[in-house]
Give the backbone structure.
Amino acid sequence: MPQTISAASARRIALAAQGFGVPRPASVGTRQLNVLMERLGVLQIDSVNVFERSHYLPVVARLGPYDKTLLDKLTLRPKAPYLEYWAHVATFVPRDDWPLWKWRMARMRDKYTKPGGWVDSHPQMIRFVLDELRANGPMAASEIEHDENVRRGPWWGLSDIKEALEYLFVFGDVVTAGRKGFERVYALPEQILSPALLEAEVPVDDAQRELVRRAVRAHGIGTAKDIADYYRLYVATATRLLNELADAGEVQQVSVDGWKAPGFLATDARIPRRIEAAALLSPFDPVVWERDRAERMFGFHYRIEIYTPAPKRVYGYYTLPALVDEQIVGRIDLKSDRQAGVLRVQSAWREPLAPAGVEERLVPVLRDIAAWQGLGDILVVDRGDLARDLAAALGLPLVE
């Protein structure tokens, strides 16, 4: 491997590691989903569904339209192969990886059980929730009857029942048992996990080394900060372990043109001569979820505007980065208007260095997405400097 990598090669390495630039399968089944999950390691979860829930989107971006119920079987059933944990943030991770997270569970317990904190001041609620699960089996928070099962404060506030469950979840005292109507279902570990998983112990250093190893493989190339962020490790920890993996020949430290920090390259990473791809990315796709990395690698300054008041939004409520080959060429704000049976392009913006004609590459992406969502038509709103060209490429009039 070369000691110096060009910025363009680094982009191609990263996209190839994430599953872009290879032909899409003729059909998508459970095997293809499992192979992709092995590559990514995680699917980030987010509740916003104005277009589609986030965890479905990395799959369609890489594999094309697929049957979402197949992914649901892998993630949302009580004993599915993937369960939830705080791996990046809230993510689906392989069930068999549960022992890899015991060190984080212990640290979360140490962090949140200090005197005077919520857990310390609500011991009866903690015991009550555990007793309910023990007596009744897996339950959603809304199914637990208690006078305190009412939301507190603003709309995002939690009831005391939900608060207790969330703490117990990060401590590993409860685990997820799928979801009902996308509401998380909780269970005691022994109700869901095998004795082998419950008993397995992985030393902290070994677990973190494995997570760094996987993060390098998933990113292909990155700084220590990039690699650490994939599984939310301390940068100092990731740096130490990366150096150990470099000594073992599993990664190589390199210089990347334009990067201030050293890069770490997976020794088995592909360096494609070119990447051919066209996709819309979730705001929480690993390609863009670390905003500094997205700006460094793609020159793409990205901030999601969900929590920005509408008059102050620049691009839109839920803009999706548009990837064409090895560039992020724009951002498109989508809404699935199921009542009208329409995919609404609320806005479409072109990135400054986007080549001419990118709208033609995005036409089949939008048509595939509309069909995947079960929507018959596409409607393009006249907002953004790409909207007019995109509407023309689709053969549609602009809508005010």
User: Anything to note?
Assistant: The chain has a mean pLDDT of 95. The two ends are 53 Å apart (CA to CA). The first strand starts at residue 4 and ends at 5. Residues 61 and 279 are 5 Å apart (CA to CA).
